[in-house]
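Lecture notes, continued. The same structure-token format from the folding unit now serves as the input rather than the output. Read the line below as a description of shape only.
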């Protein structure tokens, strides 16, 4: 059973890594827009920011409901990174247990 699940776990691990990079890109883009380095009136910038928002918001929205608002700093991406890290750590253990 371990030999069958290992490729699936590797693919899930790569998908989590890709999602973490997308969340990081979303954070950086939001900072660049907030500090007026990027202008969302530019259509390409708007499309990139909107796409990143649509990809990351379903994972961040539930965390924003749980984590209290701290003002200017959004702690939900940090919590999401921690949760994704925990999932990556427990996936191989889950495969060994099956």
């Amino acid at each position: 059973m371990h030999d069958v699940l290992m490729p699936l776990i590797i693919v899930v691990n790569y998908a989590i890594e890709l999602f973490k990079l997308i969340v990081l890109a979303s954070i950086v883009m939001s900072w660049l827009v907030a500090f007026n380095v990027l202008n969302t009136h530019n259509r390409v910038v708007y499309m990139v920011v909107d796409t990143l928002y649509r990809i990351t918001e379903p994972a961040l929205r539930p965390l924003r409901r749980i984590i209290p608002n701290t003002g200017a700093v959004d702690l939900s991406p940090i919590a999401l990174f921690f949760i994704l890290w925990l999932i990556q750590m427990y996936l191989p253990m889950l495969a060994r247990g099956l």
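Point for the exam: The chain has a mean pLDDT of 91.
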